[in-house]
Write a structure and sequence with these properties.
There is one protein chain. Helices cover about 65% and strands about 5% of the residues. By secondary structure, the protein is mostly helical. Among the domains are: about 30-105, no CATH class; about 140-210. The chain has a 4-stranded mixed beta sheet. It is elongated and about 60 Å long. The chain starts with a strand and ends in a 6-residue tail after the last helix.
Length: about 270
């Protein structure tokens, strides 16, 4: 049996020797496609955007000439920006529709438990706790990356259109917003790039838990052993057992609000 957390279903497949699922589906094909669309558009925006910001570097000049000149680079950047804007809108509408009509759990919402997990893990890292915190579908690090990219993406969309259509923007906003938008657009893009280049890529490739590559965003599945280690509270809910049975007693029960309010989310 394979537990499918992407749509709360179960599909038949190979099980381990004691009848428990050997793999758990974490992401649906829809989420995997959405993720790789974001990755592709982000790479295009980074290459074309940083080339314009650091135009005086030789590698930037080479990139701009390779694309076809500064006008072509700006055109590609803006076209990718429009597609990224549509993707952000699609994601927000999809999340809102799921929460309001499909009763999916907003699993990326930051809760009190996330702050308690931060405190617990700090104690664990300095040797005051024997185990890391027990997490549900997403831990506080995954939520941090999500919200930084989500809020940063919205800022990038708003400031990008203001820079593209400054005359129209100042009809509704003070003129000082345009130079401020230029600073925000450039620095926010750099912040997201550094975050993903350092933190997210480390977690996906170089972390000892997944090295040489986290394949969950290719296949949608992760092993049960990894679920026990990284998402024991979600696994306990899926298997209908107490968290102590999964964690051996070191995990905490999920907060009452995450048990009663809604089913597992995307």
């Amino acid at each position: 049996m394979i537990y499918d957390t992407a749509d709360n279903t179960k599909s038949s497949a190979r099980t381990n020797r004691i009848g428990r699922p050997s793999r758990i589906r974490r992401f649906s094909a829809y989420r995997i496609t959405e993720h790789w669309c974001v990755v592709g558009l982000f790479l295009v925006l980074v290459v074309t955007g940083l080339s314009q910001r650091f135009y005086y570097l030789e590698v930037s000049q080479w990139t701009i000439l390779l694309i076809g000149g500064i006008d072509a680079t700006r055109l590609v950047h803006r076209f990718a920006g429009v597609l990224f804007s549509l993707l952000v809108l699609e994601h927000l509408v999809g999340v809102a529709f799921g929460v309001m009509f499909l009763r999916t759990q907003p699993s990326m919402v930051i809760t009190k438990k996330d702050f308690l997990d931060v405190r617990h893990n700090i104690r664990y890292y300095i040797g005051l706790e024997s185990r890391p915190s027990a997490c549900s579908r997403y831990d506080y690090k995954e939520k941090f990356v999500y919200w930084l990219v989500a809020t940063g993406g919205i800022i990038m969309v708003m400031t990008g259109f203001a820079l593209w259509f400054p005359a129209q923007a100042v009809r509704f906003l003070p003129g000082q917003f345009i130079p401020a938008a230029k600073v925000m657009h450039s620095n926010e893009g750099m912040l997201i790039f550094l975050l993903l280049a350092v933190w997210h890529i480390y977690d996906s490739i170089f972390s000892p838990d997944v090295f040489p590559l986290d394949t969950s965003m290719f296949s949608g599945y992760i092993s049960r052993e990894r679920m026990v280690r990284e998402h024991p509270l979600e696994l306990a809910e899926l298997e209908g057992v107490s968290s102590e049975e999964i964690t051996g007693g070191w995990g905490d029960e999920p907060p009452a609000e995450t048990q009663d309010d809604a089913p597992p989310g995307s």
